[in-house]
Each structure stands twice: as structure tokens, then as C-alpha cells.
Amino acid sequence: MINVKHIALAPLFEPFALGSIALANRLVMAPMSRNRADHRDAPHALTVRYYAQRATAGLIVTEAAPITSSARASTGAPGIYSDAQIAGWRRVTAAVHAANGRIFLQLWHAGRISSPHLQPDGAPPVAPSAVPAEGFLPGAAGPEPFVTPRALGLDEIAALIGQFALAARNARRAEFDGVEIHAANGYLVDQFLRDGSNYRSDAYGGPADRRRRFLAEILDATIAVWGEGRVGVRLSPASSHNSMSDSDPEATFGAAAAALNDWPLAYLHVDETANIPFDWTKFRRNYRGVYMANSGYDAAKAATAVAQGHADLIGLGVLFLANPDLVARLRWGAELNVPDRKTFYGGDHRGYTDYPSLDGIDPTPPH
Fold first, then answer.
1. How far apart are the C-alpha atoms of 12 and 312, rounded to whole Å?
2. Which of 235, 277, 240, 230 is nearest to 255 (CA)?
3. CA dist., res. 211 & res. 93, Å (int)
4. In this structure, is residue 190 part of a structural domain?
5. Helical axes 154-173 vs 213-226, angle rounded to 10°
6. What is the DSSP letter of 202?
7. What is the per-residue pLDDT across 45-93, written as a single tens digit (0 to 9) for each?
8. pLDDT in tens, 324-335
């Protein structure tokens, strides 16, 4: 019997060459914070199991990994700046590779989306400018308002670029297949890109091309570590998450996407969340490389985006969180698990490694 649903979703199951990396399909497990690291902010046995369970994704992009102890927005995020963390991630990558999967590490600095109690010295978090985010940060004693960050000096910006490069080298030590620069969702790199959070008047502020300089220098530094086709970038042009804004987001991010053609990236990963009107078709035309679309995609919409050439890869978050065998379930048209949102952040194995798989399911497509 012909599986009609499988035919409709067929574009998602095509192999894809991500540069020199062969992906089994076009479905990417998108980065999702789970806040389950151990007391050293290191991955542990449950982390290994969690990612290995989902290795049938064409590519896994990990949860955001702080590049230093001062880069965190929460506790429990597994970092990439200590030997224990590198060793923990190496166990993750070994398990994913043993299951024939591919995995990139997302490199993250939260910038102003932090708190003095998360900083090693209790000082205010840093940002391009002394402009606080609106709203509250979840804390151990309940929500706490964001504090006014300290504007980075030029020497500190240079040091941060060095920390991104060191984190990239640590990711190589942990035997990842590549890294993704988290330049989205209101965190430090995004704070430099947008004029609603970047009030600088030096080489890292002002016109949009100068606001892109921080990201450009991070890319120079990380590609020098990893080489061609092993560094991706994540942007969120139309999202207001973490109280982000820009006076002309289509111009700012359209130019940013075009500028990214100057680097031999693995891909551009775009969170297409839109809190404002935004022309995604126009934006997409600016970037000539591999485009990964994310946010608001179900299987049918994802297949259409690939078939019509809007996206080469599709990032899926909660669907992979709740369905370790998502690729097989979509191939067969099987029922999907319902995600338990109460267990998204922190906790133990519940809602992390205990989502059921379909026993005995054949991962090859039906005919």
C-alpha cells in the first residue's frame, strides 16, 4: 500500500550534503535549553542518552553552551569552558556518532540576559551598551528584574572574541562536527546587531555594518579554528524575545544575511518567529548558502518549504524533544507524543529521556 502521507513529506527524508558532512535527512533537531547539567555545568549520563536517542535527526544542534562562566543566563546549562565540560560533551558526541548521527555545538553568550548572581564576581552582566532588558529573569527565589548591564570596553570585546575562539577549539576537542554561533533571541551577539540595544558610537556601533562587526570578528576567529563549512550562524530577525527591537529590522537583517555570504559557513539558521510584519521571502533571497528555517513548522509546512526551495533544512525543537524517533514517526505517519511543558527546564529524566519510542519501528520509509 502506498503511504500518501509519506509521499507528501518525502522532501524531508532526502539526504543532504552539508559541505563535506553527509546528512541522512533534512530534519534538524534545533537547540533547546534543558537546564540539566551537573554541579560543574557539565553534561552527564542523562545528557548522553538524551542526544543519542535523537541521533536519527539529519543534524543535531545542541542546547546553548556558555563560552565562559560569565556567559550564562541560567544555572544548569552545560558549558564548553572547562575540562569536565569538554569530557562530558565528548561522551555525547561519541554516542551520537556511534548511532551514525551528526552534531554541532551552539556557542552562547547571554550578555545582558543574566544577573549578578550568575556572574563569578557578582558584578553586573555585560552588553554592548548600558541598556537593560525589560522584564524578569527566572531566579532561584523567583523572578527578578533585569539589571542595567555594563557596557563592554574595546579591550573586553577583543577578549570575548578570543573566548569564542577558545570555545570553538574546545568543541573540536569534544569531537563535534561543527559549531553554531548563537546570534539570535536577544543574547549578546544579537544585542550588538540591533540598534534597540546597541547605542555605541565606536567601531562596534552606529550604522548596521558597524553593528555587525562583533559577529564578523567572531566568525573570522571561529572559522580559523574549524575551517570551511563547519560554522553556522543563528539569527532571529523579527523576534522581540528578551525585549529586542530594531528601527528597521528588514534592512538590518537583510544586509546581515547578504554579508554572511562572505564567509564559508555551514548554514544560516533562522528563527522565523515574527512579532512584527516581516517579508521572509525577500529576506531569504539575500543569502545564497544553506538556509535552515525554524519556528512554527510542522511536518507538512516543513516539507512544503523544502519542496519550494525556501529552506534546505528544517529545525524542529519541541517535536524532537517529545519524540526521540521523530524521523521514523514522520516516515510512517505514526502518532506523535505530547510534550510535557512542565518538564522542559531542569529536573531529572522525566520529560527528558523517558519519552517513548515506537518499539521495533523500521526507520526506512514505507512503500
1. 9
2. 235
3. 34
4. yes
5. 30
6. S
7. 999 999 999 999 999 999 999 999 999 999 999 999 999 999 999 999 9
8. 999 999 999 999
359 located within any domain: no
Run of H or E residues at 87: helix 83-98
Question: 193 and 199 in contact (C-beta within 8 Å)?
Answer: no
pLDDT digits (tens, 9 = 90+) for 156-203: 999 999 999 999 999 999 999 999 999 999 999 999 999 999 999 999
Tell me whether residue 216 is in a domain: yes
CA angle, corner 312, sides to 238 and 257, nearest 5? 40
- DSSP codes of every residue in 124-141: PPEESSS-PPSSEE--TT
Name the pTM for this structure: 0.96
User: Catalytic pick from 50, 187, 204, 297?
Assistant: 187
Domain hosting 290: range is: 10-318
- Domain assignment present for residue 267? The answer is yes
- CATH number of domain containing 80: 3.20.20.70
Could you tell me whether strands 150-151 and 136-137 are parallel, antiparallel, or unpaired per DSSP bridges? Answer: unpaired
The residues near 196 (Cβ < 8 Å, ≥ 6 apart) are 131, 244, 245, 246, 247
Give catalytic status of residue 355 as yes or no.
Answer: no
Specify which residues 107 forms β-bridges with.
65, 181
* Residue count (the chain): 367
Per the structure block, which three cell numbers stand in for 327? 524521523
Q: Which pLDDT score is estimated for 236? A: 98
Number of domains in the chain: 1
pLDDT of residue 7: 67
Strands 313-316 and 291-294: parallel
Buried b (16+ CB within 10 A) or exposed e, 89-102: bbbbbebbbeeebb
